[in-house]
Design a protein that fits this description.
Rieske Iron-sulfur Protein, 347 residues, binds fe (ii) ion, Naphthalene 1,2-dioxygenase Alpha Subunit, Chain A, domain 1, alpha+beta, five-stranded antiparallel sheet, binds FE2/S2 (inorganic) cluster, eight-stranded antiparallel sheet
Length: 347
């Protein structure tokens, strides 16, 4: 899919980066098509629950044995959240609504309602389960679908399955986690993390050292993802996957993995979530590793926040470079899903 019939696809126009109407459409048309990594599996032990928010939707994760389950965190009676959102999972055997006490098991079945004999119409508990959401585990992460008809997760992650299959099931726990607010549209941050043109210039002493000479870059594209692979000095390759909707998975040959995501907040702000996962024996070095990752991400923050100002001042973006093709690939997918498949449909 290209945005232009004549010549190579240009970058998306600046108008797409600051519009409240576009941000709303992204919430309705784009985000619900995908699966979102929301927690590491080890952060939700069996018999625990975790409440969080994904793109404005309150989500409740529970885990009985091996498999986690996701629900909308909303009591079917009057809509109150069963658990307040909190960073850490809580041990719990039952979910009791704080409003009128409807009580659920961790599979979302209603077990009891207060004064159950006195409803004004016949009451059948089986008609009032919690609303379920798609929930899967991949690479030690829990992925949740917030739409009713998401793309199959294996399709969203097709390139990861092709290129990192040996690295997926390594023993791995969450070692460190940080979030920052960025003063830019999520697409500027996502574009930047797909941008292999800037690394040698903008990160000469940080990421560029990890990725090595530009002439050794290897690229791969699939329908929903892109890969930059670079030789790793100690052997193997360092893999950086750019994935819809706004996520990047980085794999080191020793099994370490980083997740960098840019969920949108409003047209001018996004969150940057950074998770580092690896073998439990790496815990003592986790803070130093996070510091290293945040080092190049701070270099990026200055650039993306500056680009946001440039885009807001009426920029017509310049020509894409060969090393910016991962950006174009994502922008083509985004434009197609948003219904911008012809230039006249662009805002
Ligand atoms: S809102 Fe939950 S029991 Fe009434
Ligand atoms: Fe960068």
């Amino acid at each position: 899919m290209t945005l232009s019939e004549s010549g190579p696809q240009p970058f998306l126009p600046a108008s797409v980066y600051g519009s409240a109407a576009i941000a709303q459409q992204e919430r309705e048309r784009y985000a619900p098509q995908f699966w979102h990594p929301v927690a590491s599996l080890d952060g939700l032990p069996p018999g625990h629950s975790l409440a969080l928010e994904v793109q404005g939707l309150p989500v409740l994760l529970t885990r009985t044995e091996d498999t986690p389950t996701a629900f909308v965190n909303r009591c079917p009676h009057r809509g109150v959240a069963l658990l307040a959102a909190k960073a850490e999972a809580r041990a719990c055997r039952r979910l009791v609504c704080p409003y009128h006490g409807w009580t659920y098991n961790l599979q979302g079945d209603l077990l009891a309602a207060a004064r159950e004999g006195d409803f004004l119409t016949p009451f059948d508990r089986r008609q009032w389960p919690l609303a379920g959401l798609g929930c899967e585990v991949f690479a030690n992460l829990i992925w949740v679908a917030i739409g009713s008809n998401p793309l199959p997760l294996a399709q969203q992650l097709d390139l990861v399955l092709q290129e990192a299959v040996d690295l997926l099931d390594r023993p791995r726990v969450l070692l460190a986690q940080q979030s920052r607010i960025l003063q830019c549209n999520w697409k500027i941050a996502h574009d930047n993390t797909l941008d292999d043109y800037h690394v040698a210039i903008a990160h000469p002493t940080t990421l560029h050292r990890e990725q090595g000479p530009v002439r050794q870059y290897r690229h791969a594209l699939s329908s929903h993802g892109s890969l930059l692979a670079t030789p790793y000095p100690a052997g193997g390759e360092f893999l950086t996957f750019g994935l819809a909707p706004w996520t990047h998975l980085l794999f080191w040959p020793d099994g370490r993995m980083a997740v960098i995501s840019f969920p949108p907040l409003d047209p001018q702000h996004c969150r940057m979530d950074v998770w580092l996962l690896g073998h439990p024996s790496l815990r003592p070095g986790a803070d130093a590793w996070m510091e290293e990752v945040l080092g190049f991400l701070e270099e990026d923050r200055l650039l993306v926040e500056s680009a946001q100002i440039g885009y807001a001042s009426g920029l017509v973006p310049g020509p894409p470079h060969r090393l910016e093709q991962r950006i174009l690939q994502h922008q083509a997918l985004y434009a197609a899903l948003m219904g911008f498949s012809a230039p006249e449909l662009l805002p």
